[in-house]
Amino acid sequence: MKRLIASLATVAVLSLPTLSQAATWTIDQEHSSIAFKVRHLMVANVKGLFEKFKGTVVIDENDITRSKVEVSIDTASINTNVAKRDEHLRSPDFFDVAKYPAMTFVSTKVVKAGTGKLKVTGDLTLHGVTREVVLDVEGPSKESKDPWGNLRSGATASAKVNRKDFGLNWNKALETGGVVVGDEVTITLEVELIKAK
Q1: Residue 11 counted as domain residue
Q2: CATH label of the domain that carries residue 111
Q3: In which domain, by residue range, is 191 found?
Q4: CB within 8 A of 37, min separation 6: which ones?
């Protein structure tokens, strides 16, 4: 009887799904960037970036679709290389950084989208508004050990959002037609990750 019970227990254990092999990675801010571009005066794109951010990525090595992403961006760290414009972007006309000091992204779903590619769906919270956004991701890359013994990986992610969906409505009409600032904003993340020891 004991052998029968032991055999049944063994079968039950072997029938269970493989235990998750999840590893936590942190974004290395010094070797990563979060950039954006938006149409200006209907003629060209203006680019900028956020200089302060942090985030973690939990990668399930057995099932990548069980992975998770969380990123927080300091909105006051916006930099377009024009001080006056950056001040305007920090004002209540746009990010209103005094009231909304951070924007966040928290993933809700990860699906494979081809070799080495993923689509990561998540909630982007900006200016007090939360909307679902899908990131097109290339990576994560193969692990590599740096000279200090850390394991590193990397990924590139991009998405397009409509700023008006988040209440960033400021604009001015042009005499020749069109507006000063376009509605569609392209966001690109180039991240280098360090595996937690």
Answers
A1: no
A2: 2.40.128.110
A3: 18-195
A4: 45, 46, 47, 48, 185, 186
What amino acid occupies position 136?
A: D
Residue 30 counted as domain residue: yes
User: How far apart (Å, rounded) are the C-alpha atoms in residues 131 and 136?
Assistant: 16
Distance in angstroms (rounded) separating the CA atoms of residues 197 and 182: 44
Rounded Cα distance between 186 and 58, Å, is 25
Write out the two tokens for 85: 């414009």
- Residue 20's CB: how many other CB atoms inside 10 A? 12
**Is this model's pTM higher than 0.70 or not?**
yes
Tokens of 172: 């001015």
pLDDT in tens, 107-165: 999 999 989 999 999 999 999 999 999 999 999 999 999 999 999 999 999 999 999 99
| Total count of domains within the chain | 1
Q: Is residue 1 part of a domain?
A: no
Q: Is residue 10 part of a domain?
A: no
End-to-end CA distance of the chain: 45
